[in-house]
Write a structure and sequence with these properties.
This protein is an alpha/beta fold and 192 residues long. The chain contains seven helices and five strands; from the N terminus they run E-H-E-H-E-H-E-E-H-H-H-H. Helix 3 packs antiparallel against helix 4, helix 5 packs across helix 7 and helix 6 packs across helix 7. The chain is globular and about 55 Å long. 27% of the residues are buried.
Length: 192
């Protein structure tokens, strides 16, 4: 029976160190740590390398400690899928910030409710974004979307290294983008 921690940040500007310190300060003596940095919070857990490794490592009787619910994911479906998979395998899940523990009935109920609120909040943000885009277009402006994360030169270098077989996760870290973005840039460059 091991104590495992999973740490996750969404942007290159963030660090997992705060999460690591909070877990230690809460009295958890972690046997093994897994991390994803940086990966978008909207990326499903199954497509994150660190989560995939963590999930493979967990066994019945183990305890998984996560700093906050949103470190697992922002979609209710994704979070609940992970929680249910862990529960079915006999893995205890402790989420520090919300004070939840899946060994208790209250913990299970609260996790489900908070995951629903997290998805609700994400939906509200998306609605507001759509409203701002529609307003910009109706006021005669053209909505151009988000600026590209990489310059044309950086995209060419990324594609060259990707095609040479370099690891997608390593490229993502070096370029400060998500693995999905690496794939999107490389396949878009191929098809154009």
């Amino acid at each position: 029976m091991s104590i495992i921690s999973y740490l996750h940040v969404s942007t290159a500007e963030q660090t997992v160190e705060n999460q690591r310190q909070a877990i230690t300060a809460a009295g958890w003596r972690v046997d093994k740590e897994f991390a994803d940095e940086p990966t978008s919070g909207t990326t499903t857990a199954g497509s994150r390398d660190g989560w995939a490794e963590c999930s493979k490592h967990l066994h019945e009787g183990d305890t998984l400690v996560v700093y906050a619910l949103d470190r697992l994911g922002r979609s209710t479906v994704d979070v609940l899928t992970q929680i249910n998979a862990l529960s079915a395998r006999g893995v205890r899940l402790v989420i520090l910030m919300q004070g939840f523990d899946t060994e208790t009935s209250v913990g299970k109920l609260a996790l489900t409710m908070f995951a629903a609120f997290a998805e609700f909040e994400h939906g509200i943000r998306k609605e507001r974004q759509r409203e701002r885009i529609a307003r910009a277009r109706s006021e005669g402006g053209k909505y151009l979307g988000r600026k590209p994360k990489l310059t044309i030169e950086q995209r060419a270098e990324l594609k060259r290294r990707f095609n040479a077989g370099e690891n997608r996760s390593q490229l993502a870290r070096e370029f400060g983008i998500d693995r999905v973005t690496v794939h999107r840039y490389c396949t878009a460059a191929t098809s154009s």
